[in-house]
Amino acid sequence: MDTTGRGVLDTPQAWGITISRGVALLLLVILIPASSASAEPCSKPTARTRIAETLRLASEQRPVNITFRTHADGVKLSISLKSKYPDDMTIILQNDFEQLNIKDDRFEVLLRFMGNRERLTVPFNAIKAFWDKSELKCSDG
Q1: pLDDT tens-digit map of 10-56
Q2: Which residues are 120's β-sheet partners?
Q3: In whole angstroms, what is the distance from residue 31 CA to residue 33 CA?
Q4: Are 70 and 78 in contact (CB under 8 A)?
Q5: Are 88 and 42 in contact (CB under 8 A)?
Q6: HEC profile for the chain?
Q7: With 0-12 CB in 10 A as exposed, 13-18 as middle and 19+ as buried, what is 36?
Q8: Fewer CB within 10 A of the end CB, N or C, for the chain?
Q9: pLDDT for 92 beyond 80
Q10: C-beta of residue 111 within 8 angstroms of C-beta of residue 118
Q11: Which of 131, 121, 120, 111 is nearest to 51 (CA)?
């Protein structure tokens, strides 16, 4: 290897390509989110049980993300939220939520949207995807 004017070794070109490919592959592995193919369906009873158990642990240190179908039977939310999210809605239970009640078939929670308090009722069968601490736990595609 040759040295540059400041006594630093000049890296051969092939070595630089190897590093950049390795870094690129590492970044792809880190940045590609978990695919729905690797997560079990949210409609399975085991997934619903895990969702209920994990919801009890939701806190500032343990964010829980939930995507649900707003038009599914049993979903209760304000007309303004239903018009804003006519198909799906994702909520994050982390900092500003209150009165989380978990039932056998659904959960209810009080959230703030743009300063307004909104009560949501979401049946477990309306859930499309569920993340615990940024890890996809279940997905119905």
Answers
A1: 444 444 444 444 343 333 334 334 444 567 888 889 899 889 989 98
A2: 109
A3: 6
A4: no
A5: no
A6: CCECCCCCECCCHHHHHHHHHHHHHHHHHHHCCCCHHHCECCCCHHHHHHHHHHHCCCCCCCCEEEEEECCCCCCECCHHHHHHCCCEEEEEECCCEEEEEECCCEEEEEEEECCEEEEEEEEHHHEEEEEECCEEEEECC
A7: middle
A8: N
A9: yes
A10: yes
A11: 131
Alpha-carbon gap, residue 51 to 19, rounded angstroms: 41
Instruction: Give me the residues paired with residue 76 across strands.
Output: 121
Does residue 65 surpass a pLDDT of 90? yes
Question: Contact at 8 Å (CB) between 132 and 85?
Answer: no
> Cβ atoms within 10 A of the Cβ of 35, count?
9
> Of 112, 127, 114, 113, nearest to 75 (Cα)?
127
User: pLDDT of 111-126, one tens digit each?
Assistant: 988 888 999 999 999 9
pLDDT confidence of residue 16: 45
Q: Cα–Cα distance between 102 and 52 in angstroms, integer?
A: 7
